[in-house]
Amino acid sequence: MTIKGKAYIAGVFEHPTRLAPDKTVAQLHAEVALGALADAGLTRADVDDYFCSGDAPGPGPASMAEYMNLKLRHVDSTEVGGASYTLLAAHAAEAIALGKCDVALVTLAGRPRSEGMATGTAPRPRDPNQPEAGFEAPYAITTANGYAMCAMRHMHDYGTTSAQLAWVKVAASHHAQYNPHAMLPEVVTVEDVVNSPLIADPLHRLDCCVISDGGGALVIVRPEIAKTLKRPPVKIIGAGEAVKHLAGGTFDLTTSGAARAGPMAFAEAGVTPADIKYASIYDSFTITVVIQLEDLGFCAKGAGGKFVADGNLISGVGKLPFNTDGGGLCNNHPANRGSMTKVIEAVRQLRGEAHPAVQVKNCDLALAQGTGFQLGTRHGSATLIMERE
Fold this sequence. Notes:
Shape: globular
Mean pLDDT: 94
Helix content: 25-40%
Largest sheet: 9 strands, mixed
Structural class: alpha/beta
Strand order of the largest sheet: 3-2-4-7-1-8-11-10-9
Strand content: 15-25%
Low-confidence stretches: none
Radius of gyration: 19 Å
Number of strands: 11
């Protein structure tokens, strides 16, 4: 079964908050839901399918459906970390294509900033029943040093430099300056990045994403419904998903799950990387972007450092405009943020609703890419390709 053209993204909404000590996670989910429904021109009563992930108060769909008083005939709560919401958008399209629902609501929300979560530098609690717990937990791997291993290996194998990685942050900052909600709206230079404090060699503070509260939501509908709405139609034309793991020790630190998820999405969409006008790439760290760009086919393996250098990701300047909201590196990063706001900004670009200073000209094809969990061990990956009608 193909989902190409069988579902449309009719509504999107990103919560403007970056700090919400006065709200619960459930409240944030409900607020972004109402925002996306209003954007689509629909109401809560129209929703018959609901999607959330591990950030929702559990058990996710059951608790949130009651909280928002939704009457549903289909639900999904797939959890693959930062790839979850790119993947769930595709799952919503699949459900619509199968006739399981007409209007799907997808919500994300989190409060890691208010809760003082040291996402990148503190060892994450490990369930002792996880199969890898006994092998990895004693070494206290953190998110930052796991991604740093990937960066170090990429430098060793391909000659990638810290200055090249810094260009990813520089590009994100050039876009963030036009986002009134961005946590880090100031433009930075390569020198600023490489001279910022070292967090996990070779990654510096400015190579790392921000931590914020907030959230976002999508409304995905049948084509027949999309045609009755007033919003510019954006259709889903391709999707791919994968899980990459250590594979019994045959693990390559410089390859992500995008090497499998990307080709699936391009094949279903019937397009190539050269056709993409705008790319939303999950940017937990600068190295995350470089590796995924390679694996998606935007450049050869090992050439990612050169590809992102000299402003090639800056809208209006470079070869491939990316993350024009400022991304996780500058804008926000609540919970499983990577996927949700990637899709939202891609939709804005396809509608022609991005900030005029970063709007990509003639943007008719866009890609969103999510990566979840640990790039240096096991992670989920999801690719979504969208087209302006």
